[in-house]
Write a structure and sequence with these properties.
Alpha-Beta Plaits; Rossmann fold; 10-stranded mixed sheet; 19 helices; elongated
C-alpha cells in the first residue's frame, strides 16, 4: 500500500462546448462514478479560477492510496468511457497530475470539506503554489523544512486559514521532473493580502526561493461543487436542449433527461451493498426545499405518480425525491430481515449520497409511514416536517402471522406455473383498496396490481419482516418534528382510523392532527389523489 495523495485535474472547455453541457456531464456522470469507489476516493471537489487565468476549472480528489490509481478498478473507468463522455472530454483541454502527500498543517477549526453542507463549502478559497526544487543539494528537504519550521506556523496566523498541505510529484509518474505543490485552503472571509499574510515574506522565505526553489505557478480558485456518489445536478440539466439532454449509462442504472423536464434516475449503494434506485426531479434549484416520499411495501416509487403530478402544479418550489424501499428489487447478500431502524438508515444514506442535509417534508405510507415516523424520531435534524399515512405505531402478533402466510403465497407457484406473487398481488390490492376504488377505478386497480406483482419475492420476504416486531409508542412523546397523520376512511374497514386516532395525541408534546380521506383505503394518494392533496395542502 502506497502513501495517500491526490488526483488533480485541470480543465479548460474549448469554445464550442456549451458550459452547461460540460458541467452536467462532469457533475452527473464523471464525478459520481469516481465517488462510488470510496476505497479509492475520499472526496471530489470542483473549483473555478478567480485569478483570471486558464485553465479555468480544477477538480481535486483525495486518494486513500496512490497505488489504487494503477489498478483496473480505476483505469477501467477511463478505458470504458461512455460515448457521451468521450465526445465531451474531446472538447476539453485536460491535464491530470498525481501527487503524493508529504505533510499536512491544519487549523483546529478545520472540517473536511466533504463534511460541510454545500452552502458551508461554497466559496472556500483554494490556492495552489507549485514549486520546482533547484539542483542544490537537499533542495526538496529544505522546502519541507521551511514549511515545518516557519512558513506553516506563520500562515496559521492569517485570518480564515484552514489548512495547508504539501505534495510532491507521485512516484507513479516515472520520468516526470519532481515538483512540490502547496495547497492552501481559506474560509470565504479571510485575511489573504493582509498584514498577517504579508508577514510571511520573511528572510527565510527569500533564502528558500533564492537557493532551493523556483516558483512554477501560483493559482487561486473558489470551491463551487462538492461531489457525492449520486448524481443530483438538475440545474445544468435543465438548461440543456431537450433533444440532446438524455443520457443513459451502459448499465441503464443512471438516466438523465430534460425531456420534458429535468429528471435524474440513478441509485445509491448502502453500507451493506444494497442498490437503492432513486428519482430526482422538480425545481432544479439546488437550494430548493426537498420533499421526499417513502413507499408502501411491494410498491415502487411510481406509486406516487398521481400525487407528484399535482405537487408539480401546486407547489413548484419543491425539489422532489423518490426512492424504492429496500426489498423492491433485491436484498443484500447474505440476506437479512429488514427493521424500521434499517429503513430509516437507508433514507439517511440516500440523503447523504445526494448531499441533502435536511428534508423540507417527508411523506410515507404503510411501512413507509412507519419509516417516516422512525426517521423523524432518529434523525430530527434532517427533517423539517413529516406526513405519515396508514400505519400503526406498533405491530401485533396477528399481523406477524398474516405476513408469514403472505410469504407462503408469494413463494408458491400457481397451477399454471405463474409466480405466486401474482396471486398475492390480487389479494393485496383487494385488501388495500376501498370498495369504491375496486368498483369504479379499474385502471387504478390494474396499475397497482401490476406494480405489486413486479416485486422481488425474496425482497418481499425479508423486507416485510420490518413489520413483524416493532413498537414506537414509548418514543412518540420524544418526537421533535412537526407532523401530520393521514388515513383512508376504509383502511382495515375503518380499524386503522381508530388506531391512528388512538396514538396521534401521544406524538410530541402536543400531539398531531389526523386527517381522514373519504372513499379511500390503504393507499389514499393512489386511490383519491385529489382527496389526499386536499388533506395535506394546508400542512404543506
Amino acid at each position: 500500500m502506497s502513501s495517500p495523495g491526490m488526483l488533480y485535474v485541470t480543465m479548460q472547455p474549448k469554445p464550442g462546448l456549451p458550459i452547461q453541457q460540460f458541467h452536467e456531464w462532469y457533475n452527473n456522470e464523471h464525478g459520481p462514478t469516481r465517488l462510488r469507489l470510496p476505497q479509492i476516493f475520499g472526496n471530489g471537489l470542483r473549483y473555478q479560477a478567480t485569478d483570471g487565468k486558464e485553465p479555468s476549472y480544477l477538480a481535486a480528489y483525495d486518494v486513500t492510496s496512490m497505488s489504487h490509481l494503477v489498478t483496473e478498478t480505476y483505469t477501467s473507468l477511463r478505458a470504458n468511457r461512455s460515448p457521451r463522455e468521450a465526445e465531451t472530454i474531446g472538447q476539453v483541454e485536460v491535464k491530470r497530475y498525481f501527487w503524493d502527500l508529504v505533510s499536512t498543517y491544519q487549523s483546529p477549526l478545520f472540517i473536511p470539506v466533504e463534511q460541510l453542507t454545500d452552502d458551508e463549502g461554497e466559496g472556500i478559497v483554494f490556492v495552489a503554489v507549485e514549486l520546482k526544487p533547484t539542483e542544490a543539494d537537499g533542495a526538496e528537504a529544505e522546502i519541507k523544512k521551511w514549511y515545518d519550521e516557519e512558513h506553516a506556523a506563520m500562515l496559521s496566523k492569517v485570518p480564515g486559514w484552514l489548512r495547508t498541505r504539501l505534495f510532491r510529484t507521485s512516484t507513479l509518474e516515472s520520468g516526470v521532473p519532481t515538483s512540490i505543490i502547496a495547497l492552501h485552503e481559506y474560509a470565504k472571509d479571510n485575511g489573504m493580502g493582509g498584514p498577517e499574510h504579508k508577514a510571511c515574506l520573511t528572510p527565510r522565505r527569500d533564502e528558500v526561493f533564492g537557493k532551493y526553489a523556483t516558483l512554477a505557478s501560483w493559482r487561486e480558485y473558489s470551491l463551487f461543487y462538492i461531489f457525492g456518489p449520486a448524481p443530483r445536478d438538475l440545474l445544468n440539466l435543465s438548461q440543456l436542449p431537450s433533444a440532446s439532454s438524455t443520457f443513459k449509462a451502459a448499465d441503464a442504472k443512471t438516466v438523465t433527461s430534460n425531456t420534458p423536464a429535468p429528471t435524474i434516475t440513478s441509485y445509491v449503494t448502502t453500507p451493506d451493498g444494497l442498490s437503492i434506485p432513486y428519482r430526482l426531479e422538480g425545481n432544479p434549484d439546488p437550494k430548493a426545499p426537498t420533499i421526499a416520499f417513502c413507499n408502501s411495501l411491494l410498491t415502487s416509487l411510481h406509486m406516487w405518480d398521481p400525487l407528484v403530478d399535482i405537487l408539480k402544479q401546486k407547489r413548484p418550489k419543491y425539489r422532489i425525491l423518490r426512492y424504492d424501499t429496500r426489498g423492491r428489487h433485491s436484498v443484500p447478500s447474505p440476506p437479512k430481515p429488514a427493521t424500521l431502524d434499517m429503513l430509516a438508515d437507508d433514507l439517511s444514506h440516500v440523503l447523504e449520497a445526494l448531499r441533502i442535509p435536511k428534508l423540507g417534508i417527508l411523506i410515507g405510507v404503510s411501512i413507509g409511514g412507519a419509516t417516516t415516523l422512525e426517521f423523524a424520531l432518529k434523525y430530527p435534524s434532517k427533517l423539517e416536517k413529516f406526513i405519515a399515512c396508514d400505519f400503526n405505531a406498533a405491530s401485533s402478533p396477528a399481523n406477524t402471522s398474516a405476513w408469514k402466510d403472505r410469504i407462503v403465497v408469494a413463494e408458491t407457484p400457481l397451477d399454471d406455473g405463474a409466480p405466486g406473487i401474482k396471486k398475492l398481488a390480487g389479494q393485496t390490492v383487494e385488501r388495500w383498496f376501498h370498495p369504491a376504488t375496486m368498483q369504479k377505478k379499474q385502471d387504478t386497480v390494474q396499475w397497482m396490481t401490476d406494480m405489486v406483482a413486479g416485486n422481488d419475492v425474496e425482497g418481499f420476504k425479508y423486507s416485510c419482516q420490518a413489520l413483524w416486531d416493532y413498537d414506537m409508542k414509548a418514543q412518540l412523546k420524544d418526537c421533535e418534528v412537526p407532523g401530520l397523520l393521514v388515513v383512508g376512511e376504509g383502511d382495515g374497514k375503518g380499524a386503522l382510523v381508530k388506531a391512528m386516532d388512538g396514538f396521534r395525541g401521544a406524538v410530541g408534546e402536543e400531539g398531531v392532527n389526523l386527517v381522514v380521506v373519504p372513499e379511500a383505503g390503504h393507499l389514499p394518494m393512489c386511490e383519491e389523489p385529489e382527496g389526499f392533496w386536499n388533506a395535506v395542502d394546508n400542512f404543506l
